[in-house]
Amino acid sequence: MKRILITGANRGIGLELVKQYLAAGWHVDGCYRDKKASNSLFELAAEKKQSLTLHELDVLDEKAIQALGEHLKNQPIDILFNNAGVSAKNLREFGSIHDTENACEVFKINTIAPLLMVQALLESVEKSEKKLIINMSSEMGSIAQNVNGNYYVYRASKSALNAITKSLAIDLKRRGITVISMNPGWVRTDMGGEQAPLDVISSVRGMREVIERVDIKSTGGFLGYDGGEMPW
Fold it and tell me: 160-166 — which CB contacts under 8 Å span 24+ positions?
């Protein structure tokens, strides 16, 4: 049975990834931070005891990430999906950046944590058949497509994540590991808002179709949920 580990699995895109991969017959490792905000995930785990394993994980906690890697070191993981992220809604507009501690936390979650996850779980990914690492980026991580400004911290954190994806792709290619950034589209979730044009089911379905086609020739790419290549 193929296996995928998903961070930020308790809601939104992460929860839908869990649902669709379970339906496709995969074993899913779902990571969540706050049990109180994870009722839907726990209800799903009660139904899918044999195929859904839950892990409490705060991606701001480096020791917790290392412990997870140690716990799973003998378990092949076909896909490591670094999905957890924050939008920094209070750091959008020019002149709003006064709390550097908050801004740094956004970078820790959106940019540094995925790198730490790769370091901790690399052995498990390398043992698998698919050998795929996905970093959840955003259209806002594309410098070329920034025509509206604002969203300073969020944009920068996702652009930096894309740079990490590219370096990982270069460094891990010799080990047969594929690394990509993925844009899920503007999705109707708590983060995306009700005005977003894309529903979460369609976004995840599209990403799964792209993921099925991805191989080592795709490594270092920035791909959209619709299969298109995103400009850096």
Answer: 160/107, 160/110, 160/111, 161/110, 161/111, 161/114, 161/135, 161/137, 162/135, 162/137, 162/222, 162/232, 164/111, 164/114, 164/115, 164/135, 165/135, 165/137, 165/220, 165/222, 166/220
Residue 88 reports pLDDT greater than 80? no
Give the tens place of pLDDT for each residue, 175-195: 999 999 999 998 877 666 677
Closest CA to 118 of 52, 212, 24, 181: 181
CA distance 216 to 24: 23
- The whole-model pTM stands at 0.95
Annotated domain spans of the chain? 3-224
In one-letter notation, the amino acid at residue 173 is K
Fold of 3-224: Rossmann fold (3.40.50)
